[in-house]
Amino acid sequence: MAKEQAIIDLSNQRNKKLAIDAIKAAQGLHWWVLTKCRNQRSLSQNAYYFGVVLPAVAVGIREAWGEQLFTVDDAHEFCKNRFLSNPVVNRKTGEVQGNVVRSTTSLDTAEFSQYLDEIFKFAADYLGVEIPAANQFSEPAEAS
User: What pLDDT is stored for residue 1 in this prediction?
Assistant: First the structure.
């Protein structure tokens, strides 16, 4: 079964009216899915995360906890597991069976900012590390 998809700006009143009219006129069995488009995290957010935040967390964990071989990749996995982990619960017994960890690439800009805020608080409270704000970070210039 082929599914038709359309992106409609519902903040435009004309588009909203056309969408509502199409739904009203539809006959027979239909499957309607309405999903809000999200703003994916920006390249500058990504560069800041991998270039400033994670290195600071990795150094903090090495210094505070003595994890000598703790890398930026380790810090990334640690932060995802700590802040983006959701339990999988057996609905019949209530027992937690495991966890699902979201990918940071699934986060929109607002969710990613919240994720960073949690990392900043953790780093300050548990590692004694103050991570420089994003506005203090500038991406390295590309070599020409």
Answer: 56
Span 46-88, pLDDT tens digits: 899 999 999 999 999 999 999 999 999 999 999 999 999 999 9
Rg (Cα) of the chain, in Å, rounded? Answer: 22
List Cα–Cα distances, 142 to 21, 52, 139, in angstroms.
Answer: 51, 17, 9
3-state secondary structure 3-64: CCCCCCCCCCHHHHHHHHHHHHHCCCCCCCCCCCCCCECCHHHHHHHHHHHHHHHHHHHHHH
Per the model's pLDDT, the better-predicted residue between 34 and 98 turns out to be 98
Domain coordinates in residue numbering, the chain: 43-136
Does residue 99 sit in helix, strand or coil? strand
